[in-house]
Amino acid sequence: MAMKVVSSRCSFYLGFLVGTCMLYFLLHQAGFNKTLPKLSDGLGTTAKALPKQGTEHKDWRVEGSALINQNHAHHSGEDSRIADELYKKVRILCWVMTSPSNLQTKARHVKATWSRHCNVLVFMSSEEDPDFPTVKLSTGEGRDQLYWKTIQAFHYVLKNHDEEADWFLKADDDTFVIVDNLRWLLSNYTPEEPIYFGKRFKPYTKQGYMSGGAGYVLSKEALRRFVEGFRTKVCTHTSSVEDLALGQCLEKMGVAAGDSRDTLHRETFHPFVPENHLVGTFPKSFWYWNYCYYPIVEGPQCCSDLAVSFHYVDAEMMYLLDYYTYHLRAYGYRHRYQPPLPESLGVLPQTVGGAGLGNEPGVGGNAAEQEAESKARLEAEPAGNRTAVLEKQ
Amino acid sequence: MLSEGSSFIKGLFLGSLFCLVMSTLVSYGPSWHPGQDSHLHHHIKAPSKEELQRLPEAQRLELSQRVRVYCAIMVQPKNLEHWTTAKDTWSKHCDRAVFYSPEGSATLEVVELQEQDEWARMRKALRHAYDHADDLHWFFLARPTTFAIIENLKYLVLDKEPGQPFYIGRVAKSGELEYVEYESGVVLSREALRRLTEALEDTERCPERGRALWRLNEEKQLAECLKYRGVFAENGEDTQGRGLFNSCSVGSLISESLARRPPNVLESCCSDMAVTFSGMTPNQMQVMMFGVYRLRPYGHAFHDSLMFLPPVGSEND
Asked: Is residue B239 part of a domain?
């Protein structure tokens, strides 16, 4: 009888313990689930707050092996009217030289960053990948195939995308390109001119040629002449040194090597990473000194504010440059360099002049600066204070 | 057998009830807060565009006059490279930048503190800053291994009253103490600094030489002293809750984000209006200078409510 009481008491305590633990874990689970949405909400709201910064799937329309841009990538809180105008007027097809082994390590990051600003985007590889997507060129991989790939790639884009673009950019999967700045550069030319731009080198040619790694861009007429050159056998696969061979072909076909420097004669296409140009010093024996068409400038004036490209950019640096270009900024900062508005844009209906103070020009460079000065009331105090209040927009 | 079974069930029921009651009591208890909630009232954000545009122009002008920053940069002679880089880069955007060193320097202008202890140096430097601030109302304390975008700092505190105590940066917690991490820079309003100078007189609560056994590092000492005068650490963040003050380099933030494979690498790690980064090499800081103040995509404008002009006689910005 006593045993029964003891054992039922034990059962009671056991039940109590089990019940407590059970509910504790149950509540913890619920509590845990409550905090989890909070965390993901943090990221979720981030994504929601900038709806236009969509994922690649929304922004691109896949047509065969090409990505057609649907939404010119926007940033919340900015006025990109001028960039939008240029996007429509200066249509750029970007083709990226890549390979099957580089798709996930390099090309993927190109796709996630700068190439979102191209009008059309094509990845050239030796194998077809319908999901990425990539175009299959009938070549192998390796340095000796570079010119073959380039020849085929240019033939491909002229054949398939003639109507969709005015300019045709070649980049490597370790090149970072600021397409908006390329548009500014090209806006003073027309696609009917036989001309191409890049980082200009001087040897082995009369007019120079453009560095392959830093990327180069051909006008539609230049591209037509390149393809025509191969049709008439004026151009052939002369060597595997892609950039030089292409430059020699274009020279033969009467395509001009353009000056891609900005209005202060600063380079825009760069064959190395920013650090090398801004801070590094190239040893005097380095081949670079003998190759550059224009005088090398070391230090801050090496590079235009409106830089177009950098080379030898690894995955992390792709995002870093994307961050510096399109994201990180100094609030209210009025840049020293006020680039002139391209003539082709003329006067926009709602002038950016009054609104774009400090960051973008109005109509014509200097006029806008003066306009800006008179509209903004500067501090009377000397030296120290350099702030001003802008008129209500 | 049956009585044991029913005892067990009774126990089960009572146990669950007990647990439920206890958790309810505990969660509504005054002293217990889940980690996240305790930060909810310590977040500082920049004013929104709408808020600023609602203000009359005269008031905006007044704000722009008020938001001037005195940078106190604590250098080490042995780390000359970072010192000269800070001098050549971001510190040019401070309304006044003063370099504090334990020893004098033949080549660079510096305030000599003659203290070897970090906390003692910080005390002296902050006191000196307060005495020499003139009409500067905001103070930024940093080491030259930090890179700061002063314009974004100004934007963050634009609508905050410097006559109120503000102690802003990247907030971390050590036990019960919330403090601003030194490595990502410390922002103090004039009032906060005034209270600190008063607190520094209190040798008991805010001693110069900490008690030997319980030596706190200087960032925590600062937090303690400020706390006694009712100044609490607040975390600077953007509208999406991303921290504006970073104790690590932008490169490491990006590679961490890459490893997590989010839908958007940059949006999940790094704010557009970030104020500080740390742990970068001098060369990387020069590149950041280019990236922040020069490199940009043509045709994109921001209609900010204030305009900050570039410093005179500078080339890399």
From this structure: yes
Task: Tell me the mean pLDDT in the region A113-123.
Answer: 97
Exposure of B259 in the CB half-sphere (CA atoms within 13 A): 6
Inter-chain residue contact A325 with B304, CB threshold 8 Å:
no
B contacts of A82 (beta carbons < 8 Å): 298-301
- The span from the first CA to the last CA of chain B, in angstroms, equals 86
The mean predicted confidence, pLDDT, of chain B is: 90
Is the separation of the CB atoms in A385 and B68 below 8 Å?
yes
Residues in B touching A35 (Cβ below 8 Å):
34, 36
Tokens coding B51? 């808020």
- Tally of domains within chain B: 1
* Domain CATH for B290: 3.90.550.50
Please give the residue range of the domain that contains residue A84.
60-322
Tallying the residues shown for chain B, one arrives at: 317
pLDDT per position as a tens digit, B147-170: 999 999 999 999 999 999 999 999
- Residue B229's pLDDT band (cuts 50, 70, 90): very high
Read off the pLDDT of residues A55-95 as tens digits, 9 standing for 90 and up. Answer: 444 678 888 888 988 877 667 789 999 999 999 999 999 99
**Per the domain annotation, does B252 fall within a domain?**
yes
Residue A76 lies in a domain: yes
Here the ipTM equals 0.86
What is the percentage of chain A residues whose pLDDT exceeds 90?
63
Q: Which of B242, B267, B288 sits opposite A47 (nearest CB)?
A: B267
Q: What is the CATH number of the domain that holds A78?
A: 3.90.550
| Residue A147 domain flag | yes
Chain A residue numbers touching B316 (CB-CB < 8 A):
278, 299-300
Q: Is B15 part of any domain?
A: no
Residue in A19, A183, A303 closest to B15 by CB: A19
Residue whose entry in the numeric block shows the structure tokens 């550059």: A292
Q: Is residue A367 part of a domain?
A: no
Range of the domain at B195: 43-294
- Say yes or no to pLDDT of A364 above 80: no
Look-up of token digits 């304390």: B141
The structural domain count of chain A equals 1
- Decide if B73 is inside a domain: yes
Residue A147: φ, ψ to 5°: -70, -35
What's the pTM value of the predicted model, to 2 decimals? 0.82
Q: Tell me the two tokens of residue B99.
A: 């370099």
- Interchain proximity B287–A274, CB inside 8 Å: yes
* Contact predicate A256/A265, CB 8 Å: no
Ranked by mean pLDDT, which of A13-22, A343-352, A359-368, B233-242 comes out on top? Answer: B233-242
